[in-house]
Amino acid sequence: MTTSQTFLRTAHSDDVDRITDLHTLARTAYYQGGGVSDQSGDRTVLCAEREGELVGILAMGPPCEADVEVTTVGQLYQIHVRPGMWGQGIGSYLHAAFVQFLRDTSLAAGVLEAWERNSRAQAFYARHGWKPDGHHRPGPGNANYVRMRLSLDPEVQPGRGGQLASEPGARGRC
After folding, report:
1. Per residue in 125-144, is it b (16+ CB within 10 Å) or e — as a string?
2. What is the DSSP string of the chain?
3. What does the pLDDT look like over 142-170, one tens digit per residue?
4. 168 lies in a domain?
5. How far is it, in rounded angstroms, from Cα 4 to Cα 6?
6. Domain range spanning residue 43?
7. Could you give the C-alpha distances from 28 to 33, 88, 126, in angstroms and in order?
């Protein structure tokens, strides 16, 4: 399938159960059943749908950490793609929406946290230009969260990172 069959829309309150189900499936796939909870915060959530099925979610907003400049940086709290749908471009589509969010809000950079044992997510973000910034904090399973940063090049359009073979799992704590 191509991403042209996938569309994004703003999440609504009646999506909560489907978002929770997808979130749980995706996190279980990469944490392998480890218990992790999310905190809510001031964020924008987008849903990716394909043929009426919720196949991905994106949450983004202001940075959580005090050392990140809120006037120039936005945070990608999480991208989750339904397991079984990985490798179909949905994560790239959601990532492009995050980059567009940064551009639309005149932010020069993005930050996210990826669990250090989630090499699939880290590779996905690295292919999109993200780099570890040296900050980390404790995470589940005696493994850290690694903070990554994306600096926008004003000449590059969102979504121009090539086709990817895997889907991400960023983890925000806001």
Report:
1. bebbbbeeeebeeebeeeeb
2. --GGGEEEEE--GGGHHHHHHHHHHHHHHHHTT--------S-EEEEEEETTEEEEEEEEES--STTS-TTTEEEEEEEEE-TTSTTSSHHHHHHHHHHHHHHHTT-SEEEEEEETT-HHHHHHHHHTT-EEEEEEEE-GGG-EEEEEEEEPPTTSPTT-S---SS--------
3. 999 999 999 997 654 444 333 222 344 55
4. no
5. 5
6. 3-151
7. 5, 19, 22
Measured between alpha carbons, how far is 23 from 158 in angstroms, rounded to an integer?
Answer: 24
Q: Looking at residues 16-25, what average pLDDT do you find?
A: 75
Confidence label for 62 from pLDDT (cuts 50, 70 and 90): very high
Q: What is the CATH number of the domain that holds 42?
A: 3.40.630.30
Q: 17: which residues sit within 8 A by CB, 6+ positions away?
A: none
In a domain, 44, yes or no: yes
pTM: 0.70
143 close to 116: Cβ distance less than 8 angstroms: yes
* Tokens coding 61: 């907003």
Planar angle of CA 22, 28, 30, nearest 5 degrees: 110
